[in-house]
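Work Package 3 (structural annotation) set out to generate three-dimensional models for the target panel prioritized at the project kickoff. During this period the team completed the workflow that converts sequence records into discrete structure tokens, so that structures can be stored uniformly alongside our sequence database. As a representative example, we reproduce one entry of 115 residues exactly as it appears in the project archive.
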Amino acid sequence: MQASLLKIRINHEGNTALGPGKIELLQHIAQHGSISAAAKQMRMSYRRAWELVDVMNRCFDQAVVVSSAGGSHGGGAQVTEFGQALILAYQQILQKSAQAAADELHLITQHLKKD
């Protein structure tokens, strides 16, 4: 059973601390070294991407993403070591959840309508 069938969100004090979109954003930031480039890759505004990063950084006791201001050489952003650990932990949660619920997921998915 594919883990992508499951969408898990980790909530904290009324905010989604982590979820599939935030994990994807972190992966793009890690790949491109930029919130702006990650936002473009995901077809979202820079402002929205920045807000998502801000929520993550406020939800956790360590920075998930650190950024430097623009300027003549441009800014940038990096997913911290802690942020990288969150990505891995989230992926493992999805995998383990899908494995633990494989029989139930099979029952549900075998009865989904086909196009």
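The radius of gyration is 16 Å.
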